[in-house]
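Dear all,

This email documents one entry for the complex benchmark we are building for the journal club exercise. For each entry we list the sequence lines for every component of the assembly. Then comes the predicted three-dimensional structure of the complex as a token string, followed by one or two observations. Please use this as the template for your own entries, and keep the labels exactly as they appear.
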Amino acid sequence: MSTSKPAGLHRRRLIGAGTAAAITGFPNIGFTQARQPIKIGVPTILSGRVAQLGISSRNAMQIEVDAFNASGGLDGRPIELIVRDSRGVPAEAARLAREMISSDAVEFLFDAEPSSGGFAIHEVVRETGTVTLHINSETSSLTADPRQRFWNAFRVARQGIHDSIAGGYYAASVARSRNLRRWMTISPDYAYGRDTTAEFVEFARGFNADIQITGETWPRLFQADYTENITRLNQGRPQAVYSCLWAGDLVTFVEQASIFGLFAQSQLFAVNMADYTTLQQVRNLPRGVHSGNRYLRNFPPVPGNLAFATEYNRRFNTFPTNWSWQSATAVRLLTTALRQVGGTNPREVAAKLKGMTIESPFGAEGTVTMRAEDQTLVDYAIGWGTTISADPFVENMQKADWATIRRLEAEWKRGKGWG
Amino acid sequence: MGFGRDSAIALAVLLVFILLEFTGLRSAGLVDFAIRFATFGLLALSLNLLIGSAGLVSFGHAAYFGMGAYSFGLLMQTGAWSVPAAIMAAVAMTALLALIIGALCVRLSEIYFAFLTLAFQMLLHSLILSWIGLTGGDQGLMGGIPKPPFLGVDLARQDHLAAFSLFCLVASAVALRQILRSPFGAALRMLRDNPDRAAFLGLSVFRYRLAAFVIAGSFAGLAGVLMSLYVSGAFPSFAFWTTSGEAIFMIMLGGVSVFLGPLVGAAIFLMLNDWITAVTEHHGLFLGIILLIIVLGLRKGLLDFAFEHWRARKGSQP
């Protein structure tokens, strides 16, 4: 190391490297010469009701980026994350993306916005040609619709259609074994809620024609009082209720529905229940709620998944979310591509990402793949189980079969004219 | 002549921006800022025709901003329109919407007028959300907005879009200023200060206010077009009351009585927004405190304050 450098810088580098070593357990850090960092822009939501989306995405990214930097980065080039708050306003998300690209000179974008902001950013990078990984947008059309595809955009998130097929299959088999014929739905009244519910119903009925939807109710997003909707459900006397309410809305609904005794007569299938932020917020979590896995540290039950949750918990004193595993996967995919390319050339990195398979603790079979044909993540772990009131909160997890998901997804795409 | 001088100033502003390209002083950040400044500056300037000149405080001005954005986006997505033709059509559609809503609103005054404009805006917002087949609902207009080049202008390039947006802003500013200087503008101010007297003199309060409403709406529609070009889409939030609120904030910050006040307000608002977003997650808290300080401290817009201060000093000189 040169001794002519300012002491402050020298000390800061040492502290930084020491911290990274402490975090990642790499005792032998090569003190590579500090080089131009690789800047990655992260527009997301850090304030308001869904601040958890941005915070838990950023936390997970930071863990992975620290590990990458501590292990030498890309030939000594560390990654620097530039995370900004769009407050959930799509136009603001587009502005942040544009400014990060032009003013901050970021080389890549991790779009950690929900679908609305995600689509806004999608259009920006369609023009700028910035390699972008969409991390939290689950709306199927973002990658399923060929008109939305271009060379530099990838999705590293679960996808609505995958969850609908897996959920539909699980619901159909439970309905068959318990003879659940009369179903009602309660989902948030916006694009995600309507599309996801329609897809779930389509697949559940495809697997089990006895399922009848006898009624539906559509609360507003961020509604505070569900009395009117619960009354409708109680009057309809369904044997099963499907919901894709999420986060705070799901917590409020479950608590209010428990008071009204809804779950005494109806089985609840809540696709978004199994996420720690939701599970831990519900007072008196009812036993036996059917849920898809958003993120669970014991599903898939592999050491890498548990280690990720433990490290996350150690650093941030809370548990990861679905957004966290997606963010961590995005960093792992990109850093793998960067090292394989040996640089940051966008065309080369995008070509490397296309079709890439990496080992992952979040994979159904130990790996996840960035599918080449539509540049979206596949083979991540999807499963359904039932809730219990204490840790691990969900039991009897049943893993979805990706061969079935792929086959039905292809049929669904053909039906949409996207095949 | 006023018009000649205004046009010269407007041209000079444009030229300075274009010449910055050759000085190396024009950064990518400045180009981005120029587009947003032109967009929100035009929105605030158009609203101030109602608030500052006609004395009509509209809470529903974002309806025309949203209408301009959606009309332009939908027309361009058909693939059958050139950019200038689609802009003119979008502004015409927005003017028609302003005419229909204005005809129902301008008969009322003060709080009744304000709330009725707000109600119509929320009606349009609900329509955008529910007409999913046309608008994309809450996900906004997806699929991007094609921007075929015209007359050598390629709006897919940020620097061209910035120059074009500034051109729209200065041309609109010159036009609005001429409107305010005309007998029509004088009549509007008279209606604001004493509508009974104006009516007694034979002025049609309804017609004058409606004309102002349509003009303001049309320019807000043009601002919406610029916004949709910038984000390559249109979103329901464009027609939401918070967008109207931001425009009112800009006017309050910059000042209502000086013509360029809303532009100064827009610049301050955007700079504050960008700076606060970059340094803190408690965006609303900090922006609110700063706005409170300005509003309570100065009790008027920044340019109003400066202008009155300058006039007082000038008046006190022998």
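Observations: Chain B is about 75% helix and 0% strand. The CA atoms of residues 106 and 210 of chain B lie 6 Å apart.
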